[in-house]
Design brief:
This protein is an alpha/beta fold and 271 residues long. It contains seven helices and 14 strands.
């Protein structure tokens, strides 16, 4: 059974109305026949925030932001993946959390970003707490998918764990920082995760000027199925990127190149 995936390559809304932006993308996705709509990392932020603002805006999963996005999913009959700053009772620094809800608005899974981006001039651990568990497969009527967040893409164990759990699709909501070679890293790593796991992989990147854009869906052979523009190519890179996901392609890829049958985990050193 094939289904339609939508990537909302959204940025910071000009008027600061994040929920209004979510509503607009949801309406467009419904019109396009999308089954699963995925938003980028940093969705909850109306603009660039400092560490204190991240902590101040954080909410629990039953707070007004998550509740409003779930209501939007129900109104438009969409499954959604979105990110939020989840309040952390044990630490002032919130979790960077991805939420998957179904077309009734019910939360089906959550994932707290495990790998925090402390590199170059960014130190995410100053404003966020790390999760301590990988995501788990999410079973939907149209297929099984998993989610990870941005910097997790650089750790192949994350995608492999989800693929071994039976995911047809792995989504990476991201705010991938631009810079030397960063766009090439983004595209290469997404394609690599698809090729090595012989499944669909999608990365949706924030469209703000400091990020790469280039939200892309890759097939199980590493082929590009759909792609948004790079933020640097035009002033406004916001777009709804849509691709059809056909799990039959996974079976064909794994029959032709049966890497999962050839795995020898007993020989792999645990690091």
């Amino acid at each position: 059974m094939s289904f339609m995936l939508g990537l909302a390559q959204s940025g910071f809304p000009a008027d600061g109305n994040v929920l209004g932006m979510v509503e607009s993308y949801a309406a467009a996705a419904q019109e396009a026949g999308v089954d699963l709509l995925v938003f980028p990392e940093n969705l909850m932020a109306p603009r660039l925030l400092d560490a204190a603002e991240h902590m101040r805006l954080a909410e629990p999963l039953d707070g007004p932001f998550c509740t409003a996005v779930r209501a939007c999913a129900k109104r438009h009959g969409l499954w959604m993946v979105f990110t939020m700053m989840e309040a952390n009772p044990a630490d002032m620094r919130p979790f960077n959390t991805a939420v998957a809800c179904d077309d009734t608005g019910a939360v089906r899974s959550t994932y707290r970003k495990c790998h925090l981006y402390d590199a170059h001039t960014v130190k995410e651990s100053d404003r966020m707490s790390a999760g301590d568990a990988l995501g788990t497969p999410i079973v939907a009527p149209f297929g099984t998918f998993g989610m990870a967040i941005c910097y997790d893409l650089r750790f192949p164990e994350v995608a492999r764990s989800l693929a071994l759990g039976g995911c047809d699709l792995i989504v990476f909501p991201s705010a991938w920082h631009d810079g030397p070679h960063k766009a090439r890293h983004w595209q290469t790593l997404l394609a690599a995760r698809a090729i090595e796991n012989e499944c669909f992989v999608a990365g949706v990147c924030h469209a703000g000027s400091r990020y790469v854009g280039l939200s892309t869906v890759y097939g199980p052979l590493g082929q590009t199925l759909a792609q948004g523009s790079a933020t640097s190519e035009r002033e406004e890179a916001e777009a709804l990127v849509v691709a059809r996901i056909d799990p039959a392609q996974i079976a064909a890829a794994r029959e032709a190149m049966p890497v999962f049958e050839h795995r020898r985990p007993e020989t792999y050193r645990t690091c």
